[in-house]
Specification:
Shape: globular
Strand order of the largest sheet: 1-2
Largest sheet: 2 strands, antiparallel
Distance between the termini: 37 Å
Number of strands: 2
Radius of gyration: 21 Å
Number of helices: 14
Helix content: over 70%
């Protein structure tokens, strides 16, 4: 990507962050918490899109990596007395190291076998969260995780501060992902996605590109897990199951639009708001969730990003026709 285009993306992302933060901080505590969770899941979706959307590899172990980041933050802050700002990067590095080990094992396979292998790893990870009760709290969960420290000069309560941190992490993840996918490694990942055999024939370092994408995704998944733990003050193994967090990540990216980075943010916003909007009819919320997935897979396989792009194109075309002189308009 040319530097000017990257600069435009950065400026637009920062402007949207400022607008979103300003609007979010006007909400009540409940809606503010929903926005905070939505931003965390959007961070997960963007980081996961780097792997799924740009290399074509479906990992079902990311729910466990999310848990690794959360439990690492909890252990370091609650048991070891680390401040949150030291535990956050450490949790990301621990998740990244775990991701590197998983990648070295999983990339011995491809296609369906890759997905099945990572599924097994995700199941093992969830079971470890249950049996390592001395570290994780087991079935009862990990309690007493301290909230992120709020500086005295920040004119926000803890809920507002949590929301601001979640939105800031989403912004940082999005910009880092933009830099990655437009680097040489990102170009190599795209080549791997399009045709692995051709990429190998062209001398592209396939193993290096795939490993970099997996580790990048794992690190930011760990960051999201650490912030989730600190904001919730409690984590339990049920939050990191394959059927829960693992498949939810896939849904966020598919509904939002794979390989776009900004599309998964839309998917996270929609799929976070939907259960809350249907809370009054909780018995039908999962049904509505499933119907929504079916609709997008069948009628909009490229996700919300493609719908938004098409809508903007129509608006621009309509504006151009209205601005053109009558004699120059097409019949």
């Amino acid at each position: 990507m040319p530097r000017t285009d990257l600069l435009r993306v950065t400026v637009a992302a920062v402007a949207l962050f400022l607008v979103a933060a300003t609007l979010a901080l006007r909400l009540d505590d409940y809606l503010l918490y929903v926005v905070t969770l939505g931003a965390i899941f959007a961070t997960l979706a963007v980081s996961f899109d780097v792997l799924l959307g740009y290399t074509g590899y479906l990992s079902l172990a990311h729910g466990a990596l999310f848990g690794v980041g959360a439990y690492a933050c909890g252990i370091l802050t609650a048991h070891q007395g680390w401040p949150f700002w030291a535990a956050l990067p450490a949790a990301g590095l621990v998740a990244g190291a775990a991701g590197a080990v998983i990648a070295l094992l999983a990339f011995r396979t491809r296609g369906l076998y890759f997905a099945v292998l990572t599924l097994g790893i995700g199941l093992i990870g969830h079971q470890l969260f249950l049996v390592l009760a001395g570290l994780t709290g087991g079935v009862g969960g990990f309690v007493g995780i301290p909230s992120p420290g709020r500086p005295d000069w920040v004119p926000l309560d803890q809920n507002g501060w949590n929301a601001l941190l979640a939105l800031a992490l989403l912004l940082a993840t999005f910009l880092a992902a933009q830099l990655f996918v437009r680097s040489r490694l990102g170009a190599a990942c795209l080549a791997v996605r399009e045709d692995l055999t051709l990429a190998q024939a062209l001398g592209i370092r396939v193993g290096q590109a795939r490993l970099a994408a997996f580790v990048f995704s794992a690190i930011f998944t760990g960051f999201a897990g650490a912030l989730f733990a600190a904001i919730s003050n409690f984590v339990a193994p049920e939050s990191f199951t394959v059927l829960g967090a693992g498949f939810q990540l896939v849904a966020l990216v598919v509904v939002g639009g794979m390989g776009t980075l900004w599309g998964p943010i839309l998917g996270a916003a929609l799929l976070t708001a939907l259960p809350e909007a249907l809370r009054v009819a909780s018995g039908y919320s999962l049904m509505a969730y499933g119907v929504l997935l079916l609709v997008f897979v069948i009628f909009a396989p490229r996700g919300l990003a493609s719908l938004a792009t098409a809508g903007l194109a129509r608006l621009r075309t309509g504006a151009g026709l209205r601005a053109a002189p009558a004699g120059e308009r097409r019949p």
